[in-house]
Design a protein that fits this description.
Helix content is about 30%, strand content about 25%. It is of the alpha/beta class and about 290 residues long. The structure holds 1-O-phosphono-alpha-D-glucopyranose.
Length: about 290
């Protein structure tokens, strides 16, 4: 029997320089798409996929994230006193059960692989998920839940993938594919951010992973890769002969909320997908971008 995936890592240590000045005092993961912070979308997606333990790899200046997933007694009491039950439920629902949320600091920004490695003792010897809050997916069935179904079949390392234009391969981890049935691709290698002319394919990793704990041993070596950073992609590539690697084309639309255009696009798409906001959003679009 395959071990259940119970834990998820959320690397939230990044500086968010692309969103300055908004991110000077505010963690980029707290930027809202419509009315919910990016990190909350990721946490809700993890929960809907059956994740029970949340592990945040944070950094300095990220305490707003901890406060967000904690009680705010003054706010809760005020809402209760004013009979604002809906709002009260909204802020209470998101608080994890005591002991089911852990924080560790990355200390130095040495790369995604390093951030994940920082959580090794909290994960232990079991498979785990990694969610990058920057990558937001709008889908009927949440992306990680789709992956869990497939993980039950394949085990190993499984990531969400999508085809990108060739001139964008240097933004992603790219699969060197051996077999592809149109939904699931098996890879024999992986390259982090290759230039378009040397990229082995255009099939790119987006920020959802289900990983085997053996990867931590690779990360222990602290070897630097693309951009001088310790890369998660490299750790998965070096274990590919021992741990089968699959990429899953998920159903849904992914927004790169690490870029301004992607963030804007996400706000428009999520507003249009909301019953309470669709009419307003359509009206705004018509007014500002007629025809
Ligand atoms: C990270 C990973 C990369 C992946 C991407 C998805 O890169 O290193 O392999 O394709 O996330 O968003 P980053 O965007 O942090 O530079």
């Amino acid at each position: 029997m395959r071990r259940r995936v119970r834990k998820a890592i959320f690397p939230v240590g990044g500086l968010g320089t692309r969103f300055l000045p908004a991110t000077k005092a505010l963690p980029k993961e707290m930027l809202p798409v419509v009315d919910k912070p990016l990190i909350q979308y990721a946490v809700e997606e993890a929960r809907e996929a059956g994740i029970e333990e949340l592990i945040f790899v944070t950094g300095r200046g990220k305490s707003a994230i901890e406060d967000h997933f904690d009680h705010s007694f003054e706010l809760q009491e005020t809402l209760a006193a004013r009979g604002k039950e809906k709002e009260l439920a909204l802020v209470q629902e998101l608080i994890p059960r005591p002991g089911r949320i852990a924080y560790t600091r990355q200390l130095e920004p040495l790369g995604l692989g390093h951030a994940v490695w920082c959580a090794r003792s909290l994960v232990g010897e079991e498979p785990f998920a990694v969610l990058l809050a920057d990558d937001l997916v709008l889908a009927d069935r949440p992306c990680l839940a789709q992956m869990m179904d497939l993980y039950a079949e394949h085990g190993g390392n499984l990531v969400a993938v999508m085809d990108v234009p060739r001139d964008q391969t240097d933004r992603y981890g790219i699969l060197d594919v051996v077999h592809d049935d149109g939904k699931v691709a098996q890879a024999k290698g992986l390259v982090e951010k290759p230039k378009p002319d040397v990229a082995p394919s255009t099939l790119s990793i987006i920020g959802r992973y289900i990983l085997h704990p053996l990867g931590f041993e690779e990360l222990d070596r602290q070897e630097k890769g693309a951009g001088g950073e310790i890369q998660l992609t490299d750790a998965m590539a070096r274990t590919i002969d021992r741990i089968p690697f699959h990429g899953m084309r998920f159903e849904g639309t992914r927004f790169d909320c690490g870029s301004k255009a992607g963030f804007l696009e996400a706000n428009v798409a999520f507003a249009l997908a909301r019953e309470d906001l669709r009419a307003d959003a359509e009206d705004i679009l018509k007014r500002f971008a007629p025809g």
